[in-house]
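Sequence in, structure out.
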Amino acid sequence: MTHAKRVYLAGPEVFFPATEHQIIVTEKKRILRELGWEGLDPLDTELAFGDNESPQQRGFRIYRANRELMNSCDSVIANLTPFRGISADPGTVFEVGYMIGQGKQAIGYSLNPLTYRHRAGNRTHDDLGHVIEDFDLADNLMIECGIVESGGQLFVAEHRSELEFFDAELFEKCARALDY
């Protein structure tokens, strides 16, 4: 009996209130399951922390658990919708790079239809005189180009979604783009 290929679900949803996180992740997993995949969320590690652990120790345990979860997956689908700024969540970007570095396919999506430069104010330089990249891409070139080079694709919503960080139709496009 063959097992479903595993997909790591990267994104800022881990920072959402528990109910919102659960609704989104449940829907993502349902879509993947219907297509023959198993979705794994970073919170599926179910870590328990002791009262004597420092915040740094907890952080390293989360990192190691998520790294092991990524190692067990065949690919990643990443929510790259800008989070806490004009770019994707930095942890999510790390996870995409980690998976690509292992030779695994990365698929991404953003619910913000604006290019990186437009989100940066459509200027050539910021207030400090630093160049703002202009490659007509959804985010920093290393993110989108890395995804494409992995055999994946970055899907960008054509308009704002009802929910700021999730759209089932766009996520299904991502799932259908996975290599079988």
